[in-house]
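Quick check before the chapter quiz. The format below is the same one you will see on the exam, so make sure you can read both the input and the output lines.
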Amino acid sequence: MEQSNEPTDPSETVPSKIWHRNLVALWIGLFLTSMGFSGMMPFLSLYINTMGDFSRSQVSLYSGLAFSASFIVAAVVSPLWGSLADRYGRRVMLLRASLGMSICVFLMGTVNNVWMLIGLRFIQGAFSGYMPNSNALLAIQVPKSQSGKALGILSTGGVSGSLFGPLVGGVLASIFSYRITFFITGALMLGVFFVTLFFVQEKFKPVTKEANLNTAAVIQELPHPQLIFGMFITTMIIQASNMSISPILSLYVKEIMQNSPTVTFFSGVVAAVPGIATLIAAPKFGSLGDRIGSQKVMIFGFLLAIVLFIPMAFVTNVWELIALRFLLGVSNACMLPAVQAILAKSTPAAVTGRIFSWNQSFQAIGNFTGPLIGSLVSSIFDYSGVFLSTAGLVLINLCLVVHQARKQF
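Here is the expected output.
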């Protein structure tokens, strides 16, 4: 089997000041990318409604297609980009993703019918990959003993961008217009391209097509393939769990508050508080994972999530829900960063791009299936049933991880 020309542990040859600067630049890139993605969500359906005389059901259908299109395509194309990343380098893939997304978002402001918008959302999904390539690039440069902390800090860039995105997008749309907001968002993503171009460094020796490992060879390179694929499933279930309550969250707040005129404000607060907690806690739990083991931190996160989802189904006022959602952000800080750290510590440098791109595919599947699960459960049972079913989903994930840990160790 031919080996990659990359060193076994590039972190040994990357000066600290370089990977620290890369961490800052990639954090900014993830922040702006996530803010751009989430910033479109508050007015996407309203934008669609301006493109024709649609019924409520048609707007709902088109909005669902536009929302899910990028996730579906990302799940399919991510392995291809991962293979190219291992062959040509992760920095090239970061530049490709940021420039492609910038062009797609800018063009969304020029469309005049809904199918053009949905088509551009599909294309945007095809140009995805900034997050997994950021993780992969940093993972091979940071010493393994510090990877949990570094990847935990990096994850806060995406979390904080997603947190501020809807607020920024809503403000821009109200001050300007939907179309101009797309132009501004496209310009921000173009800024990501230039930040990556000028500030992200990677020493990478291109690998020939013949030397690039195929899928079977990549799996053979993994010292613990079952652990890696277990983390893929874990990523998918974590995302599905987080997204399953998205379709009903504001409706649940409305029911709890009995149609209070402040429902919109408190719905925003309820949606935002987990991100605030994750932003604060992720670096701390990343450091803890480096000391005691990322799997232990992740298992604690699962247990905490189960304990929190169950009482969410029975809250009687919005403040109880806010408190539980804040603590849920702490559990999120234990889970996804821990997965990234385990992947970083368990993956040879030659196939890091492939592994993180496969993980993104499973994350995209979770993003797509989670809202479907939540909508289905709420239609059969009620809003409380979504929280209970989500707790069950997390429990299944916990059992899988514990079983895997016992087999592994």
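If your answer matched, good. The domain at 14-201 is CATH 1.20.1250.20 (Growth Hormone; Chain: A;).
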